Each structure stands twice: as structure tokens, then as C-alpha cells.
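U., I forgot to send this yesterday:
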Amino acid sequence: MNLIVQGAELSDEDLRQLAQMTRAERTEHLAPAAYRLVDTQTEAGVAEYCARAGVDFGFVPPARRLEDMRLLAIDMDSTLISIECIDEVADLAGVKAEVSAITAAAMSGELDYKQSLLRRVALLRGLDQDALARVYDERLRISPGAETMLVAMQAAGIKTLLVSGGFSFFTERLKARLGLDYCTSNVFQIEEGRLSGRVIGNIVDAEGKAAKLRALRDELGIEKAAIIAIGDGANDLAMMAEAGVSIAYRAKPLVRNKADYALDHAGLDGVLNLFD
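Result:
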């Protein structure tokens, strides 16, 4: 296996220690603060060392190429973008603390996602729909490295799916802005220019995300091994289990522990370094 190490800062001493620990054949520079340790012989102690050093790591098979992947499924809130949209909408409604607490519990797996979403949306009842545009225009930011990652994925011919337990007001705009192929999400009900406190149609929860990925996989005739899935919350786990490569990005511990790889320090462009 090859060892990929990357992060905001990676010292020469960290690199030397890791190469010695793993008995790597050689070291290759991939990008600023990203390296490949080739043909490592052992994994012992690497996770603990990287945790102390504040860097991300991943053992990857040397033959795995980005060009062999065919579908990327990525969560929206706190993954593709750096905010939780519903929390920021709630801020404009004066109920951010209450909504954020429910969001955090749901993402950690402490609350049923469907019920948590209904509770949060109910708290937004009566809010002017213009608040959605304000959040998109004034607060929404693409996560570091996301656009670089997407450009490379698209150049490799990989289809892109934005799958979210959030809302279509944001996913549809991001789909157009970033040139994504597909998206799925929930829909706010609007009555007379204000949020009604209800959701239209079936709720996209953990199983809804996984079902969308399976349906698209079957439609496109894609094998599981050719799918990448990236998420951060408990409602992403079912989707991530459908992928050949699962990546936790700035994720809750439950998700980080179940994913194939975790990016806690590198940006989303760090995903590219996990492939030849």
C-alpha cells in the first residue's frame, strides 16, 4: 500500500518519521503539504502519529486511479459548503440556537433525521422567503478545495451527484453554479411569500440519500467500486456504505470512524491525492 499524508502543515520531520515507521521505499511530493509514501511495509503507529501531528493520512492501493471512478456523491451542508443552511436561515428567524442544537444532535446520530428536520422547519414558520436568498448570497461559501476537486473529477469523466437532507433552494443553485450533473434534496413549502413551517413531498433522509445513489448507480450501470461518496453527518452513512470509496470530511466521530478515509485538515482537493 501507499501512504498519503496531507494537511495544512506537514513538517520535514513528520515526513521523515512516517517514512521510517512504515519502511517506505520512497517519498513523492503530490501538492503543497501532501505526500505519497510509496510501498509502505507496515501501518503500525501511523494513525496515532498523524493524530498528534494534526495531519490526515490514508493507505491506498497503488493501482487505484481517478479515471477508474465513475460517480461522485457528495453531501451539501458542512461538506460541499462550509455552513448548515437551515441554521443560517434560522438565524434570520431569530431561532438559530434552538435549530443548531437539533442539527448537531441529528448529525451526531442522536436524533432521527426525519423528525429533527420537521422540528427545525416548523420553527421557521412565517419567515419571509427572501431570507433564503440572503443566506445564499451573503453566507454560503464553497468549502476549501471543493472547486479544484470538482474540476478534476469532471475532467476525468466522473458524474457528480449533490445529495442533501437540506433544501432545493440551495442545491439547485449550486448544481447550476458548479456544473453538477444531478442533485436531490428537500423542498420548503412557501405560502404567500413565507415559509409555512412544512416540507413538500417525501423527506430526503439517510435512506433517501442512499436510495438516490442506488437508483443513479443502476441507471448508469456503475459498479460500487467506481463510486466515491463524501459526507460529514450520521445521515450520510447509508449513502457512504453504497460507495467503493467513502470519505468523511470535517465529520462527526461516528462518521469518521466508519469511513474509509477522513479529511480533518486538508481541503476537499485532498480527495484527489487518494488516487493515482
